[in-house]
Queue: 4 jobs
Job 1
Amino acid sequence: MITTFPSPEDLGLSPLHVVSVSGGKDSTATLLLALELHGQENVRAVFADNGNEHELTYDYVRYLEAAVDIPIKWVRRDFTELWWPRRDYVRDVWPTKGVAQEVVDRALRVFERGPTGIPFLDLCIIKARFPSRMAQFCTHELKIVPITEYLVDLHDSTGRQVWSWQGVRIEESAARRNKLQGTGACVLSYSEMGGGIHHYRPILRWPWQAVFEAHDAKGVQPNPLYRQGRQRVGCLCVNSGKDEILAWSRRDITHIERIDEWEDIVSEVSKRSNATFFPAPGDNDTARERGGIWQKVEWARTSRGGRQFSLLTDLAEPTACSSEYGLCE
């Protein structure tokens, strides 16, 4: 005899709508849309903390929780289980691969101190490198993995279908457009992950103006970093351009100092004894001299071509409000 069990839909259980919150404008607009369409009882919000976010973004996530009156679940990767096997690999395998004992010992001193508790830094130590444009492991390991674990746990504990709402827009970049455009006039606003979990991208075609209009309509302030001229409001990204690096160096010098410290630490666990936050193509022995964080800051202060310092850049002071989106007007 085959026993069948009623599905959640048969029991009258509606799907849960989970919005991945980043503190940015797009995810906030997505959360506001989900709440309007499905109500607080059917909406959940989750924030993946990589340990390298801007302090104002942390503050904004807390503000948003109060502003929309819905709990935002914070999730964080813990790399303890990967840390000690990596330590053992460095100790036991590196010498057999011709790595100098001096290099092995230096790396082991870092591992013996144990995980730092900062997910981004711990991941870079384990990888012995920083992410890059071609190896963007930070997004997968620090955002996608913990949020996916949360979605699976939510489905398993409630028995309800879970719709994962993602605040992405094809206007943001050519790469995103190519990935999510689909064919013809279609956009890939829906995909099925499996196991009762679905991906939904409701604002794929929204222009940025509509995103801020959604904030205004609900009386929700955008992340204050947008009023500092930022286009991205999370951590300083390894793909950041000249203007963004300059903005961080002028307003958030402590973040630059922290990255300098992290370059020291990750260099200690690197076989080549050199690791830079931003790419530094060329001779590895001079990578830190040419492409360390402070060298990138100096480059960001130069005019086009990267050879002459811009007098206007040197003299200019950060204004109280400077927005790429006209938020100061």
Job 2
Amino acid sequence: MGRRCFLFAGFSAKYPRAIEKKRRMRYNKTNLLILLKGARTLMVETFTTRITPYGLDRKVFLYLPDDWQTSGKRYPVVYMFDGHNLFFDATATYGTCWGLKEYLDAHPEAIVAAPECNHEGNRRLEEYCPYDSDWFDGIHGTGKAYMDWLVGEFKPWIDARYPTLSDRAHTAIGGSSMGGLMSLYAATRYNDVFSKGACLSPSVRLCMEPLTADLRAARLRKDTRFYLSWGEREARDQHQLAEYTHNALTVARLLSEKGAAVYPYFQMDGRHCEADWRRQLDRCFRFLFGWE
């Protein structure tokens, strides 16, 4: 059976044609990956930063267009979660990455700044959950503290060092699974900072009640855009698939009612894994940024 996608009636999914103070941050460059492709130099820079609310150092993966130092251009920025899973199979938790470097190599129109997650025990669940939850024997969500750091310290530092388009219209946030949940939360609660959210397979079932309460209370600007996806094979059976679909469409409806443009995408045969999120990159970025 061929791959198919479903677009749900009632949601806006238009493709537009165009799409502070400096704070100190600990910066220890640990690696610079330079990959040659013809005459172009394509870069993913890694460095260590301190996430101050946790008092922990964390590696950051930073994708830079090849001409960022010479073009005189400024670029939109996508802040993403689970940076180790985005660019290289060698650093990905399960051995397969999103292939985001290859995609951006062909569409060098953005900077991506992506801290690695906390790999210790359930700390990733805690950092990437904006609410307390009874799942997994209880999650004490510290996602708000993480986002306060990202918005208040990390983003200003990136903007001060690199040629970014720092305004809201050119700032997006994205991730998958728990990172997708955080992206949904962030683009809603910090809508004065992020105009776009890439929410791939967001783990909304962990906290549907507080999440939907926040969505109902949210005040979104009319140019806000959300890409929201879920996959057929993420569920163990038809009952669970119905739950996932209901949750996704509930979130999409609430966002749409607030005036946001929402692209709800059901990936036939889609699994909860990097290989299948990889197949959504072009669809997602073209919708969010209006790339041709």
Job 3
Amino acid sequence: MDPIAKFIELLDRARRTPGIHDATGMTLATADAEGRPSARVVLLKGVDERGLVFYTNTLSRKGREITAQPQVSLSFWWPQIDSQVRFEGRAACVSDSEADAYFATRPRESQLGAWASQQSAPLRSREELELRFARLAREYEHKTIPRPPHWSGYRVAPLTVEFWSNRPGRLHHRELYTRPSPDAPWSMTLLNP
């Protein structure tokens, strides 16, 4: 089975499972130019044969790290269904038209927040952020809010996908799918737990 199709089936199962607050939450691991790692949770906003998509401020720490070192890792952990899925691959910005289309679907407050927040930069006070937000809300009242130039999506084209399933006696089931390039066929290997 194609690992992307397998992942989509598992994601659908996780979405239907009580107790999983947001099945699209995934840990994104990046590294800076010196190789220092950083991880945080982002939300999956699209997945197809080309890869997995999330959106963010490109000037944030994660955006800067992806620019310096585009090799990233994504991890989904759903203990309620005894499953973990890991992806490794290269992240690249989505097209402007794709980013514009997604930005237009966001709630208005989220659109304003994308302009108001200088993500990952020091903030003197919460009031400073709230004042910026209020000023932008007045400026764009009754107007379409354009996508900020520093806000876009990243598509991670995976070269490695690993499925982990919990099993009794810690004899977990692990399937590793690999391919040498995004347009190459997948091969699958079972791994010891």
Job 4
Amino acid sequence: MNNTVTLPFPDRRLSPNGRRDRRWITDVRQMARNTGYYLTKDAGLHVPDKTPLHLFLTFCPPDHRRRDDDNLIGAFKSYRDGMFQALGVDDGNVKFTTYSIGRIVKGGSVEVKIEAIRPERKPL
């Protein structure tokens, strides 16, 4: 089962710190959502429905500029919405999110991995 997809680095206009007028950002959000949707479909990503999930995000920036982790996560939201729409799974199934800042990549990227959380076995 393929459980990884690589998405483009989020547009800086999606950053929560860069927001001005909600109407101004709508098209950028929709493009990010569509990108998340189609790249997830193309990657053949599958996860079980109604299963708790762990989302791993590795943000690979396009340059050495300093970025706030909370802004990266906020900017990623539209991609995430598109991904889970493509999967046909409620993003409320994500119980844990682990993120890291990876290596510098030309143009930047976000490496996404989704794993099902196995239930713990109770002792007999």
